[in-house]
């Protein structure tokens, strides 16, 4: 399945393969979105086909749902599952407290809902995703389309009042149109450089009426499986 991989894909693959070992028959499993999570879905597909693993998967995006079905996983909705044993997902950044930035792939809303409805969340990541302070990766904020420019102006005002570094907010684009999420919303990316108080920033952002959710995952991740390009894996 892994063939000849680039160093970064090898790191993602070994993290995903290791994390797949935490999945047991009978589990309801949240399936993340992104290139690392795609490796996880493929590894689980292989286990279903070759080892008789029986699981029900709840995908966090239409992309992941499609891949999961293609590799032979049983796919159900979160409403059908109601509660999950485990969610495994990628991340754009993680710090020593296992706080995360997610949403680089635009699926943060479903990802956060699914991870929060799980007994456990495991993040799979290549070693380059580890940071001392979150914020180098632009923080995605999902906003409803109605009045998004006013919402963006409010977000910028709040960043200035909080004296957060960077402060630049940009609408994520898909060609010449705003990017549209699976929930038919848009994403504003915040270029902050460093986020000194992620908990406070997350709470403040989510109080703005047009904001649906932001990509800071705090007290959600329980474990991180870190893959290295030489094939080593660390679990924290
Ligand atoms: C998608 C996400 C992804 O998990 C995150 O962007 C990491 O992606 P990748 O594994 O491709 O580096 O949050 O919304």
UniProtKB/TrEMBL annotation:
Gene3D superfamilies: 3.30.70.260, 3.40.50.1360. It is an enzyme of class 5 (isomerase). InterPro entries: NagB/RpiA_transferase-like, Ribose5P_isomerase_typA_subgr, Ribose5P_isomerase_type_A. It comes from the Bacteria. The active site is at 111 (proton acceptor). Substrate binds at residues 33-36, 89-92, 102-105, 129. One of its GO terms (molecular function) is ribose-5-phosphate isomerase activity. GO terms for cellular component: cytosol. Pathway: Carbohydrate degradation; pentose phosphate pathway; D-ribose 5-phosphate from D-ribulose 5-phosphate (non-oxidative stage): step 1/1. Keywords: Isomerase. Homodimer. Catalyzes the reversible conversion of ribose-5-phosphate to ribulose 5-phosphate. PANTHER family: RIBOSE-5-PHOSPHATE ISOMERASE. HAMAP family: Rib_5P_isom_A (MF_00170). This is Ribose-5-phosphate isomerase A. It comes from Sagittula salina. The lineage of its organism: Bacteria, Pseudomonadati, Pseudomonadota, Alphaproteobacteria, Rhodobacterales.
């Amino acid at each position: 399945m892994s063939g000849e991989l680039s160093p970064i894909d090898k790191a993602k693959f070994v993290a995903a393969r290791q994390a797949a070992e935490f999945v047991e028959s009978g589990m309801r499993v949240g399936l993340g979105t992104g290139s690392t999570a795609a490796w996880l879905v493929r590894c689980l597909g292989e286990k279903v086909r070759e080892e008789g693993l029986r699981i029900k998967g709840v995908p966090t995006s239409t992309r992941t749902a499609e891949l999961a079905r293609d590799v032979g996983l049983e796919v159900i909705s979160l409403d059908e599952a109601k509660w999950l044993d485990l969610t495994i997902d990628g991340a754009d950044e993680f710090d020593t407290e296992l706080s995360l930035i997610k949403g680089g792939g635009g699926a943060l809303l479903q990802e956060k809902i699914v991870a929060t409805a799980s007994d456990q969340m495991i993040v799979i990541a290549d070693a380059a995703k580890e940071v001392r302070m979150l914020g180098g990766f632009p923080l995605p904020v999902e906003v409803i389309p109605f009045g998004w420019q006013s919402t963006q102006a409010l977000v910028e005002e709040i960043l200035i009042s909080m004296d957060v570094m960077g402060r630049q907010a940009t609408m994520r684009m898909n060609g010449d149109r705003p990017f549209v999420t699976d929930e038919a919303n848009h994403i504003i990316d915040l270029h902050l450089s460093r986020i000194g108080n992620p908990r406070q920033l997350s709470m403040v952002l989510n109080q703005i009426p047009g904001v649906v959710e932001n990509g800071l995952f705090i007290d959600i991740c329980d474990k991180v499986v870190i893959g290295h390009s030489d094939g080593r894996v660390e679990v924290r």
